[in-house]
Amino acid sequence: RKESSAASDVYKRQDYSGRMKTRLSDVVAQKDAGTIGEGMDGFLHSRNSSDSAVIALVKAENKDRLELFKALAAKTGGDSTAVAKKFFEGIATKAKAGHWFKKASGKWIQK
Q: In the beta sheet, which residues pair with residue 39?
């Protein structure tokens, strides 16, 4: 039974990980365009976009990020909020000039 659970966990990870990889070029393109940015909470945020495709992209990415954060927290014995913060720090370090970040206060800043 444990093997079945482990196999299921690997399948789930590949599932959300694969979806995140598939949409990465779209996420980067929207960041480059300034329509979305990263939040200090580890999630994507729309920057006043009413475009339904952008909103759907953000929702899908955030759903998979939440799964990732929960899985990593379970694996490390930490909590998903701490994992999300580390994720944000990694993204912020690698971000391109011009990309936007949403502070905890709600204020947007540009790298």
A: 102
* pLDDT given for residue 29 in this prediction: 97
Residues 6 or more apart whose CB falls under 8 angstroms from that of 66 comprise 43, 80
Instruction: Supply angle C-alpha 42, 51, 20, rounded to 5.
Output: 40
Please, are residues 36 and 54 in contact by the beta-carbon 8 Å criterion?
A: yes
pLDDT for 48 equals 87
d(CA 89, CA 83): 10
Mean pLDDT of the residues in the chain: 90
Across the range 20-37, mean pLDDT stands at 97
Is 90 within 8 Å of 68 (Cβ atoms)?
Answer: no
Nearest to 57 by CA among 19, 110, 12, 100: 19
pLDDT at residue 55 is higher than 50: yes
Give the integer Cα–Cα distance in Å for 53 and 17: 20
Distance CA 24, CA 108 (A): 22
